[in-house]
Amino acid sequence: MTNTVPTLTPEQLDTFGRELDAIRQRALDDLGERDLDYIRRLIRVQRGLEVTGRGLLFASFIPPAWLAGVTALSLSKILDNMEIGHNVMHGQYDWTGDPALSGHGFEWDTTCPSDQWRHSHNYMHHTHTNIIGKDRDVGYGILRMSEEQKWNPYYLGNPVYAVLLAVLFEWGVALHDLEVERLGSGDVDWSEKRDLLAGIWRKASRQVLKDYVLFPVLAGPQAPLVLAGNATANIVRNLWTFTIIFCGHFPAGVFDFSVEETDEETRGEWYLRQLLGSANLTGSKLFHIMAGNLSHQIEHHLFPDIPAHRYAEMAVEVSELCARFGIPYNSGPLGKQFGSVVKKICRLALPDRLWGRAPATKQAPAAPPLTAVARPEPMPVAA
Amino acid sequence: MYTEIADPQPTGRLRARPHRRNLGHRILGSGLVEALAAPHGVDRYLELVRPGWSLRDLRAEVIAVRHPAPESVTLTLRPNHLWRGYEAGQFVRCTVEIDGVQRARCYSPASSAHRADGLIELTARTHPEGLVSRFLHDHAVPGMVFGLEPAAGDFVLPPKRPEHLVLISGGSGITPVMSMLRTLLDEGHRGRIAFLHYARTPDRVPYARELEEIAARSPGVSVAFAYTRAADADDSRRGRSRQGQEQLRQGEEHFRQGQEHFRQTQGHFCQGHFCQGHFCPEHLLAVGADPGTEAYVCGPPGLIDAVRAVGEPERVHSESFVPPARTIDTGDAVGAVSFARSGVDAPNTGATLLEQAEAAGLKPLHGCRMGICHTCTCRKLAGTVRNLRTGEISATADEDIQICVSVPAGSVALDL
């Protein structure tokens, strides 16, 4: 995109960074029983939903029980993956010293092994957010999500790939660290990925065994219904997580960056990139919990290791700070943000010349851009 | 007060409790249930039903809380099925949650190793900076659940018990020797046991009454208390509750009677002694022991040194229970501490490496914070450290050090 980054002087950027540091420090100083009570309560709810859901599915011969069971299990998986798993694995609760909440020890109810997730997400994505060519979350090596990814005919299938990715999202996430597109292009050899593959195999087979073999078999004659229920719950979770996650960095108005312009970032510049590269969703408290507070994607990217339930209160200060510095704070309801993501997926399926280059988004008109328009760093095409 | 229940089969060794693996444990611990509970594991569900329940984690539930002395708290714990017991004198690492943060400390059980109900009794003495002990004193209630580690420590009686022995303790060091005394009584020990305890003031002895009762009913046991600061009564009275003042007054009365008693019976083997001042050979004689008696000492380093100076070195067995005095001279602290695995570097502040790691935002495993439990042991990659307990200076590369009692002398790199 040809968005220009708002122009701030180095001093302003420094002040901006310091103020964000101060917001973070205030939250850190206040960590305590409240945070632990929150996450434990949530875990209790999640495990309760899980046990209830599995139990109801054993009574699948009553149709409402099947439906209720699928609902409970879907909710359980969503909470487990998002507000609990994703956040705990960020180390948000490491300060408690509780091994059950350790960022390095937690394993989540999805096919992706937690250690690979921590590498591809906590390190790669959160460090290099929205840097085309470095952040593999831009299109996940499958989709074209930025003009800076050079168009080729493969991308005509963009909407189809997106739907497939949404339905099979947990598998996409599981294979993410393998860098399948680089394996296909020959940049990376399979032998280098043997350990990763073994890890995925171990984790995924355990998940498959549980959801698609053991629980159905235990249900006896109702095995097909339980199997269908578990599969449905997994798909519901896939669609929901895809929707929320794609609203984090792809709605209209979110900035991309080039490797060059982010080469030697100061703390203030890093904060600015995280802020401009993320978008928030507005909604009720329940909605934020179900979204794993990724609806506060901006705050999450500024403060990835602060317990996510605090983002809502931190957002008040962050948005006020942005207003003061004239920095756009991208936020909107789910319908609007996801709508713009869908539009982008469809638009980028076609060559840019059909649309005229770059639909107008935000521009900082007066001053010359602090950083040049991102240089295209073509994303390799998936095989 | 705690009552002793004699063990029907005293063995003199750590009694291995049979692993109670009932049908429930077998089912919950089966591969099938583990596969169904993946990826979180069975324990993550069990603990939601009841916090003390766990197939894999050793935990204990607090079932009683008492305050035997104004600044002490005595907890009775019921450990779960994974507990394997302890030997008298050993310590247990307990993990307690305080304002959301898990804190681990080591405590020596004071109960008999043969206690038939399998409960553990811990007594903690609070001190102003003691975060955990203060929390336990003020907030411990029945139902609270602690994490435990298996008992550890070498301060134990030999399998073949010495015929005659003297147990000497100072301050909170009373707990492991109390456990030794109770254990020996449960074993029906036939030789003489002398018990000599040092406290600053009479009101600070948590097991005073029980010790007196034991001395009164057990012919082989003699007990004496020595108060090192009885004259500072005004000082110790400050800031006490009415109950505390009353306890103090009783203690002082007790002390005066004791002094009188001591004057009348000095030099004789008798029971219920009260001595004054720090350790000296006369105190040994007062409880019927002599410098050649096998001695088990737990207390501050000064007490241990004094006993060693008098007794035969190979007959003095000791454990120091007081954090070594440390000199943090920031003017002296040079260089930097590098936590290699975390990629964190910080200027050397002169504090212990554990404290410096925590100040740098790291969460190293630790336990006693006084060089006893070795939980914090970690690999030093380079640099010179001084051990605060031993004063030893070591520049060996790639050695395991206890970071809670090691201060860097110059730059140090740790595998942390």
Keywords:
heterodimer, A: 383 residues, mainly alpha, two-stranded parallel ribbon, B: 416 residues, alpha/beta, Elongation Factor Tu (Ef-tu), domain 3, Rossmann fold, Ubiquitin-like (UB roll), 3 domains, six-stranded antiparallel beta sheet, six-stranded parallel beta sheet, 26% strand, globular, disordered N terminus
- Please tell me the CATH architecture of the largest domain in chain B by its name: 3-Layer(aba) Sandwich
Which whole number gives the mean pLDDT of chain A? Answer: 89
What sort of overall outline of chain B do the alpha carbons produce when their principal axes are compared? globular
What Rg of chain B, in angstroms, do the CA atoms define?
23 Å
Helices and strands, with pairings:
The complex is a heterodimer of chains A (383) and B (416).
Chain A: H1 10-30, H2 33-57, H3 63-89, H4 114-127, H5 158-167, H6 169-175, H7 180-185, H8 194-218, H9 223-249, H10 267-276, E1 280-282, H11 285-290, H12 297-302, H13 311-325, E2 331-333, H14 334-347
Parallel strand pairs in A: 1-2
Helix pairs in contact in A: 1-10, 1-13, 2-3, 3-9, 5-6, 8-9, 9-14
Chain B: H1 23-28, H2 31-36, H3 43-49, E1 59-66, E2 72-79, E3 92-98, E4 101-107, E5 120-125, H4 131-139, E6 145-148, E7 165-170, H5 174-186, E8 193-199, H6 208-217, E9 221-227, H7 233-237, H8 242-265, E10 273-276, H9 281-286, E11 294-299, H10 301-310, E12 316-320, E13 336-339, E14 344-347, H11 353-359, E15 377-387, E16 393-394, E17 399-402, E18 406-414
Parallel strand pairs in B: 7-8, 7-11, 8-9, 9-10, 11-12, 13-18
Antiparallel strand pairs in B: 1-2, 1-6, 2-5, 3-4, 3-6, 13-14, 15-16, 15-17, 15-18
What features would you describe in this structure?
The complex is a heterodimer of chains A (383) and B (416). Chain A is an all-alpha fold. Chain A has a domain at 10-31 and 124-320. Chain A has 14 helices and two strands, in the order H-H-H-H-H-H-H-H-H-H-E-H-H-H-E-H. Chain A has helices at 10-30, 33-57, 63-89, 114-127, 158-167, 169-175, 180-185, 194-218, 223-249, 267-276, 285-290, 297-302, 311-325, 334-347; strands at residues 280-282, 331-333. The radius of gyration of chain A is 21 Å and the shape is globular. Mean pLDDT of chain A is 89; it is low at 359-383. Chain B is α/β, with parallel strands linked by helices. Helix content of chain B is 25%, strand content 26%. Chain B has eleven helices and 18 strands. In chain B, the strands form three sheets. Chain B has a six-stranded antiparallel sheet. In chain B, helix 6 links the parallel strand 8 and strand 9 (221-227). The longest helix of chain B has 24 residues, at 242-265. Chain B is globular, with a radius of gyration of 23 Å. Chain A binds chain B through residues 31-37, 43-44, 47-48, 51, 94-98, 100, 107-109, 203, 206-207, 209-210, 214-215, 218, and chain B through 32, 35-36, 38-40, 44-45, 47-48, 95, 97, 99-103, 363.
